[in-house]
């Protein structure tokens, strides 16, 4: 179906869940007023990014009042949002939730936790163990959290599982200031457009803004059509709301002209992966 | 085109945003900085004026009696060009009062004392104006340890600490630092006629090319030699970076508990902001 998505490029405060929830609720109300059907927020929108030892302090259980508040709002707009999740056995995850019609439709726990360079996620967080597409009002969707997108297998699995829309929640630090575009921004746009083209999927990429300890998150949230064209983009570094109308006809047209997903041979992939796995374990 | 060439409008935007975000989020509006008459503090002054409005930036020139009079003139020029608040607080009485007790002190001790005297003045003015102290050390100086610990290296926020000197020159052109300040030879101005490059024994352009490859690109010695750097130069610079590392870290805390500050008690500085 045709739908309208609001990319909410916000600036969360580090470790201030109540403040961030209030900001998110306000932004969602505005998106509802603008008749958006879906709102997408960044990775860890409820908490901020460089949490370190704050992780246990800001983590939410799925039955927390904060999650209940978002669920309730999802009766009026579908919501994809990032937060720190804590389970009953005290595992902490960098999670993305999809709320729709007052329910938690899907929960994705970030699988690929970057732990190199300026990143240290694996020190503080548990690793998710699956990629699953799921059905929404807007067709089948795959959720990814930031670094997940950098592993080809992740969007591949989601596309093979039937996703036609990939939604990536991100907290990407801007770096690389040689001539031309910001290094990280150029790399991400290359990645999202290539992924859209490979999988003939829409890609909705939402990145945060603001600075934490001198690290500037670059924003630049955007929507990529299944053809690989960026159809709309938010400004870099400033908070913004980007409202984009998505037509199902574009997806249909691209799937007809480039039937890559249809032609993908799962059997070869599975057989070769099984062989590689066997050879590696020898 | 050097590998050190930067997209100056982009960096300007990132650094202005950095100053706004990091200052406003702690509930402050103002900044305080020392204006030496040199290019580093001139650049920070221009960035701060753009970020906060010149009326919210207090630049203080703190000459000693041996400082080159041209330095104060250049500091004034920068303050006028950027429109910031400007004052002069001389440090001669305090520094001389101290060294009257230690008349044999060498240039290094005197230079360090002057840098620390200036630091106390900046932090006092930070309390006076409710503004954060801006650091003006560039990446080259920080890596080489060419600065005084708890002196000019002390600050709340440093917008230019990830820019090499060569890049400071580029960005200074972009933000409109007055020409004489860009063109003069870099100097710590501790005594008449001193220049950084003479004291260091190499030019900033040479060392920046090496540091960029060594630090940013993690090139090994074989690669550096192949790129044309002399083995002795590489070893000497590597030694400087290594031996000054203590200046870039907090004081070492002896661990006795299960949760020691900065080792297993880890929070971002922007905790709750």
Which helices and strands, and how do they pair?
The complex is a heterodimer of chains A (282) and B (273).
Chain A: E1 3-9, H1 17-33, E2 38-40, H2 55-58, H3 65-73, E3 78-86, E4 92-100, E5 103-109, H4 121-124, E6 134-136, E7 139-145, H5 153-160, E8 165-170, H6 183-199, E9 202-207, E10 209-212, E11 215-218, E12 222-224, E13 230-233, E14 240-246, H7 248-257, H8 260-263, H9 266-281
Parallel strand pairs in A: 1-2, 2-3, 7-8, 8-9
Antiparallel strand pairs in A: 1-14, 3-4, 4-5, 6-7, 9-12, 10-11, 12-13
Chain B: H1 8-24, E1 30-34, H2 39-52, E2 57-61, H3 69-82, E3 85-88, H4 92-99, H5 107-129, E4 131-133, H6 139-144, H7 165-175, H8 179-183, H9 196-200, H10 204-216, H11 221-226, H12 231-243
Parallel strand pairs in B: 1-2, 1-4, 2-3
Helix pairs in contact in B: 1-2, 1-7, 2-3, 2-7
Overview of the structural elements:
The complex is a heterodimer of chains A (282) and B (273). Chain A has helices at residues 17-33, 55-58, 65-73, 121-124, 153-160, 183-199, 248-257, 260-263, 266-281, and strands at residues 3-9, 38-40, 78-86, 92-100, 103-109, 134-136, 139-145, 165-170, 202-207, 209-212, 215-218, 222-224, 230-233, 240-246. With 282 residues, chain A is an alpha/beta fold. Chain A has a single domain (3-281), classed as Carbon-nitrogen hydrolase (Nitrilase/N-carbamoyl-D-aminoacid amidohydrolase, 4-Layer Sandwich), CATH 3.60.110. Chain A starts with a strand and ends with a helix. With 273 residues, chain B is α/β, with parallel strands linked by helices. Chain B has a domain at 8-195: HUPs (Rossmann fold, 3-Layer(aba) Sandwich). Chain B is built from 12 helices and 4 strands, in the order αβαβαβααβααααααα. A 4-stranded parallel beta sheet of chain B has the order 3-2-1-4, sandwiched between helices. At the A-B interface, strand 10 of A face helix 1 of B.
